[in-house]
Design goal:
Layout: H1 2-9, E1 24-25, E2 31-33, E3 44-53, E4 56-63, E5 69-75, H2 81-96, E6 105-111, E7 116-122, H3 138-157, E8 160-161, E9 170-172, E10 178-180, E11 187-188, H4 208-211, H5 224-239, H6 253-262, H7 274-283, H8 294-297
Length: about 300
């Protein structure tokens, strides 16, 4: 089990392949599913690579007729069964969601001969929040937090737990709009007693109860793991480094497990506003039943727009 956990840690940062200026057309597809606005794969022109990882590549593409830009996530059919399940889960969730705070799916294309699947999504031209660590004011961070929490509140109302909230999975555009993306390890709850404490996602952002179900204190809120990850991410964006470890220290599974399960939750520095310090504390309570929900956090004084 330790070997599996260590391997997940290595995926904290996914390398980008070389970006090519060469443009090329998408191959024809055998089947097109859940398309929006009549877009087909043949209508799209690849421009460059935005990122890669977990058996797939994300391209920036342009509609040949309208000039509209999209992001196209393509996954090869030769991937292992775990990645196949993750892709199917992401497709199912994207079909169910329709929110300004969740990345929008415009179509799903299947190339049955080789088992390749592509998901056409809206293009967010600002990249991810990962690039903003340490360069965000409290006021701007509050604007991001409102949007992310509205997205989480929407997902949780649909009984969807994200399970991998982190800066790399929050997309930004030039309007400072933030949207939740990457649902490969998310879970749709079928029964009220379903557990979400399985070991999936990025271990650096896992809550205490997901490392150790006995650490959750009283009754466990299945959505509370998303709130822990969100609070950790908010603190990271402001201070500029991963807050559970000293600056520059590379996280490994054993160190993270000890810090999360046995250490005190990280706190915002004293130089931060009292409202922000309180906001982070409400997110990072070790007892999951005492963590604020997304809806409660939306009413926190830190998010008052007149501050």
């Amino acid at each position: 089990m330790a070997l599996v956990r260590e391997r997940r840690q290595l995926n904290l940062r996914l390398p980008l392949p070389p970006i090519s200026d060469r443009r090329f057309s998408l191959p024809s597809v055998t089947t097109t599913v859940a398309t929006s606005g009549g877009i087909s794969a043949a209508d799209l022109e690849k421009l460059n690579v935005l990122g890669c990882g977990n058996g797939g590549v994300v391209y920036r593409v342009r509609h040949k007729n309208t000039g509209d830009l999209y992001a196209l996530k393509t996954v090869n059919g030769d991937m292992d069964p775990i990645l196949t399940r993750q892709l199917m889960r992401e497709m199912e969730i994207l079909r169910r969601t329709d929110s300004p705070y969740v990345v929008r799916c415009h179509g799903i294309f299947e190339k049955q001969v080789v088992g390749e699947v592509s998901i056409l999504m809206e293009y967010m031209d600002g990249g991810t929040l990962e690039s903003l660590r340490g360069a965000v004011t409290e006021q701007r961070l509050a604007g991001f937090a409102r949007q992310i929490l509205k997205g989480l509140s929407y997902l949780h109302a649909l009984k969807i737990v994200h399970r991998d909230i982190k800066p790399a999975n929050l997309l930004l555009n030039s309007k400072d709009e933030v949207k939740i993306a990457d649902f490969g390890v998310s879970k749709i709850l079928v029964r009220s007693l379903d557990s979400c404490n399985s070991y999936v996602g990025t271990c650096a952002y896992m809550s205490p109860e997901r490392f150790d179900s006995e650490s959750s204190g009283g009754g466990s809120d299945v959505y509370a793991g998303d709130i822990w990850s969100f609070g950790l991410m908010m603190l990271e964006l402001l201070v500029g480094h991963f807050p559970l470890l000293p600056p520059g220290q590379r996280p490994d599974w054993a160190t993270l497990m000890c810090a999360v399960c046995f250490g005190e939750p990280p706190r915002a520095p004293e130089v931060c506003s009292e409202e922000f310090r309180s906001f982070v504390e409400c997110c990072l309570r070790k007892d999951s039943s005492k963590r604020w929900t997304a809806s409660q956090l939306l009413g926190h004084p830190f998010l008052r727009e007149d501050l």
